[in-house]
Structure formats: structure tokens, C-alpha cells
Amino acid sequence: MRRRRREQTSSSSVSFVRARHRATRSIWGPHVAEISRRAGKMVAICRDPLAFVQLYGRRDAMTFEQEVQAVARQGHDAAVAFVHQRAAEGDADAMMMLAQWRCWGHFGSQDLAEAYRLTEAAAATGHLPAMLTRASMLLTRTGTSRDADAARAIVEAAAPRSPLAAQHLAIADSIPREAPQPEILSDDPYIARIPGLISRDACAFVMARAMPMLQPSFVIDPANGQRVPHPIRTSAGAAFPPTDEDLVLHTVNCRAATASNTDVGRGEPLHVLRYTPGQEYRPHLDALPGVENQRSHTVLIYLNDGYGGGETEFPELGITVRAQAGDALVFRNTTDAGRADARTEHAGLPVTSGEKWLATRWIRQAEFHPWKAETER
Ligand SMILES: O=C(O)CCC(=O)C(=O)O
Ligand SMILES: [Fe+2]
């Protein structure tokens, strides 16, 4: 099951302790032996979530996910049926769980339109995570068409009750509206540095969001099926799934579109890289072998500074770029004929001290649906 997406991250053990506290308080009686007997039983019940549900119901005792886990002890089909039943009864948590399943094709086929319908219904109950997910779906065309104004209105409606939504608005609005003047490093192939494309607050936000998702770069060795270190990229990376593209990430993507003079609907999901000392991205082309809809442009957004090494280098062109947090580097990967342009081979040189963080937006020649990216990878 995918990562939880909640307004406030509360670890299940914490909510369990709270639930136990509430329950024990109500049985507090004068007789110490009886108290300890009952308390012992309570601890045993708390170790058995299913017993807990049967005794106390769930409402303020367990999260919906804990409840589903408890039912899952009766078997996987029972848990799936339970979620469907609760969703049909209008339970927003259940609708959101089903929406995730329909997005990712878990326990049934992928159906983005149904995922959007479920999220919209959950959001209509005032469920804050559903409201924010619905906004992301409107921004990324997940089961619906793109409507950035409607997405913003939803985040604004959530903000008085949701510090997270308020933070999204504040940080999105900290990003300059107009892309600053580019500094052209090469006319042909086009390479430009854009100082201050996004704010430092937005940089910090992107890093914080990517941090828990980072995975070391591996490839599968076809000879033995083993995971082996990626031959070209030694950093750790993560791409934001479309339902995670919040207002800040979307605004970053919009600025990458403006900086490259492309439509925001052509970009792949924003990808974050973190390099620690010794890590690098060896010389490579961003254009992909054998795809119809080629990566015509790349926008690199530098998220921090203060590290040693880690410059972006174009060896064929003799260009080396060192940037500050918030700066971007834009370049064209393809020739006018739409073929990979070998001159744009580039590398992230090894980091010698500190950490280097970077967000990459690979932009295709034509419209690119973000869910397609998942199926192609
Ligand atoms: O780390 C760098 O400077 C280069 C990154 C890069 O080439 C990419 O993300 O495609
Ligand atoms: Fe690259």
C-alpha cells in the first residue's frame, strides 16, 4: 500500500496510545486489583486491533488504515470489500483509499476518472487531504482536465483549517511571477542560465518534500536480475507522482515551462536528485533512445548552494555552470529535426563536499500525460 497522505502525520503508535488512554480513563474504578485486571485486558485488546474495533468501534479510536489492517487479518478480499462498503456509505477516508487504488491499479484496474470522482466526493465532505489531492488532480489532469484556477480556489478554501494548504499558498506566492532575464551561454544548441527562477523558500520546500521519497539510483542487471548501482547516475532521486503535485510544485513546473518557452503540459513529473560527496551524474544525453515524443528541453533547477564540486558541465561545448539556489539552467536536447543533439552531452561533476540538490524537469516535444510516465518507466 502506498505512503499515507494525511494532513498531520501522526504515527499509528501515537494514535494508538492516545486511544488507549481515552479508553482506560473511562474504566477507572476504586478497586486497584480490578483496575489492574482491566488495564491488563485493555493492553491485550490494544495489541489486537480487530478486538479493539469490535469493542470500541473506530470513530476516534483508530485511523481508517488501522481499521483496514485489522480487517485484513480476515483475508485480503475482506479488507477490499470493507473499503468498498465504507466508500459506498460515503466515508471520505475510504473514498480516498479507493481513489489511490484506482490511480495505481491496485486491487482492480487503473481508472483515473473514477479516482477523480471519488476524490471530488471525499473533498465535498470537507476532508482536507481529499481537497488537496483534488487540487493536485486538477493541476496534473488526473481523471479530469486541467483547471489551475479551480485548484487554487480549493487550496484557498482549505487554508483556514489547514496549515499545510496555507503553507502551499504562501510558498507558491513567494516564487517570482515573471521568469528573470536569461543569460545565454550558447545560442546553438540553446543553453541559458536563469538566475532566481524560483525562491529559496520554494527550494527548501521541494527538498523537504522529496527527502522521504529519495531512492538510490539502481538498474537491474539483465544477466542475473540483480539490482546493481546505476552505471551513470550515483545520486539518490525521486519523482513526484501526479497526485503529489501540489500548488508549489506546480508553480515550479510552470516557471520551468516559461523559462523554456514550452507548455506546462509537456513536462515529465518533477524529478529531484541529491548528491553526496563522491556522487555524480556521468556524461549523458537527456534525449531517450527510441521514443516518439522526445525530450526536447531540460530545465535544471538548483535547490541549494554551498557544496564543493558538482558543477554541470557540457564537455563538447566547454561550458561549466555553477549556480546558486533558485537558479535554473535551460537547454535544448534535440536538433530542429527532432533528433538527439550530441553536442548537449552533459554531466553533474562529482560533489567533493556537502550535498548538492537539484530538481530536473524533462520536457517533451509534445503534450505528455504524467500517468504515462509511470507506465513507461
Ligand atoms: O547534476 C547535474 O548538474 C546534471 C543533472 C542532469 O543532467 C539531469 O538531471 O538530467
Ligand atoms: Fe541530464
TrEMBL record:
Fe2OG dioxygenase domain boundaries: 266-365
Cofactor(s) listed in the protein's UniProt record: L-ascorbate
InterPro entries the UniProt entry points to: Oxoglu/Fe-dep_dioxygenase_dom (IPR005123), P4HA-like (IPR045054), Pro_4_hyd_alph (IPR006620), Pro_4_hyd_alph_FE2OG_OXY (IPR044862), TPR-like_helical_dom_sf (IPR011990)
UniProt GO molecular function: dioxygenase activity; iron ion binding; L-ascorbic acid binding; oxidoreductase activity, acting on paired donors, with incorporation or reduction of molecular oxygen
Database matches in SMART domains: P4Hc
Keywords recorded for this protein, A-Z: Dioxygenase, Endoplasmic reticulum, Glycoprotein, Iron, Metal-binding, Oxidoreductase, Vitamin C
Record PANTHER family: PROLYL 4-HYDROXYLASE ALPHA SUBUNIT, TRANSMEMBRANE PROLYL 4-HYDROXYLASE
Stated name of the protein: Proline hydroxylase
Protein source organism: Sphingomonas suaedae
Lineage start: Bacteria, Pseudomonadati, Pseudomonadota, Alphaproteobacteria, Sphingomonadales
